[in-house]
UniProtKB/TrEMBL annotation:
Keywords: Membrane, Transmembrane, Transmembrane helix. SMART domains: GGDEF (SM00267). The keyword Magnesium does not apply. It comes from Aliiglaciecola litoralis. It holds the Pfam family GGDEF. Residues 206-333 form the GGDEF domain. This is diguanylate cyclase. The chain crosses the membrane at residues 21-40, 47-69, 106-134, 140-160. It catalyses: 2 GTP = 3',3'-c-di-GMP + 2 diphosphate. The keyword Transmembrane helix applies. Its EC number is 2.7.7.65.
Length: 333
């Protein structure tokens, strides 16, 4: 059995996500790129466009700072996407077709900030709107060139962003999922525990509990039935647990035959009932029972100011108590 001490207990600043880098890069570059034009418009006393440019500089700068400080990306990303199209559409409306060049970076940015299908629909609507606004300002040939070039940009951006998101999802699953059982892996468990502990230190009124399960005499099961059958048992065990836990609970593979359920917003009494329910469901599973599979369970509620290591350690000791009491039972830290 692997020691709980291997759980990462670093409280350094969280790493920047891909979404944070995208939003901070786009907002920062936009703010710096538009700033010189806002100054030029002020110097030329082109007040309407100057106000629009200054608004864009301030808004994108604020979005950059917000994401930098809070690490939140969902709402800032949406704001940045709609803001970009609003500024471009307004600029074209005020200054005419000479400002159409700004639509290309705005279209590309949309597909990095919004879901690909939504970005595609909005982009088509904006392009049609620009065509209506400029119908008396450009020739048929100019309109044809604009729509062909902007359509190609839209299609390329859609294809690239869709592929990028699919690959990102696959990489995330590889990095956080146990390849055999599909449960969260040890890395995902460590990160989740750190997140829960950080949340508990801010919002202690919402309890959180941890349930550590170990398959009893699993080595003997492997020796009798073989490792291939042992893998089948682990898969069946995870399926049985997933069928019993709530949608808000998270299941992770901690070690070879050790698994952890993190139950957020769950009191100790509720966690005890859940742990007993999980133990009973494994005992009553006909296929698992044929192979003599039972589990020993340790449960611990998070207590204020303890570390993730200490929390997991208490549930680990409770699980060992269950082993000492004859296995196939639950103990509480």
């Amino acid at each position: 059995m692997k020691s709980a001490k291997t759980v990462v207990e670093k409280h350094s600043a969280p790493k920047r996500t891909t979404e944070e880098f995208i939003i901070m890069t786009l907002s920062g570059v936009t703010s710096l790129a538009v700033l010189p034009f806002s100054l030029i418009r002020l110097y030329q006393q082109d007040w309407a466009v100057a106000v629009l440019d200054i608004f864009a500089v301030v808004a994108t700068g604020c979005l950059f700072c917000y994401v930098y400080v809070t690490h939140k990306t969902k709402i800032p990303g949406q704001i940045l996407a709609y803001l970009s199209l609003f500024v471009v559409f307004s600029t074209v409306t005020l200054k005419g077709s000479q400002q159409l060049m700004w639509i290309y970076p705005a279209l590309t940015a949309m597909f990095f900030l919004l879901p690909s299908n939504l970005a595609g629909i909005i982009s088509v609507a904006v392009l049609l709107g620009l065509g209506i606004v400029l119908r008396h300002d450009i020739t048929l040939l100019q309109a044809l060139v604009f729509y062909i070039s902007s359509g190609a940009t839209l299609i390329f951006s859609y294809a690239f962003s869709s592929r990028m998101r699919k690959q990102q999802q696959q990489l995330t699953e590889l990095a956080t999922k146990d390849p055999l059982t599909g449960a969260g892996n040890r890395r995902a468990l460590e990160q989740k525990m750190l997140d829960v502990v950080a949340f508990q230190r801010r919002e202690s009124q919402y309890p959180a509990s941890l349930i550590l399960m170990d398959l009893d005499n699993f080595k003997r099961v492997n020796d009798i039935h073989g490792h291939a059958k042992g893998d089948d048992i682990l898969i069946a065990f995870v399926n049985a647990i997933n069928n019993r836990i709530r949608i808000t609970d998270n299941l992770y593979r901690f070690g070879g035959e050790e698994f952890v359920v993190i139950a957020e917003n769950t009191s100790l009494k509720e966690a005890i009932n859940l742990a007993e329910d999980l133990r009973d469901s494994i005992e009553r599973d006909e296929w698992l029972a044929e192979h003599g599979v039972t589990i020993s369970v340790g449960t611990a509620k998070y207590t204020p100011n303890e570390t993730a290591f200490e929390w997991l350690g208490r549930s680990d000791r409770a699980m060992y108590q269950a082993k000492e009491r004859g296995r196939n039972c639950c103990c509480v830290a």
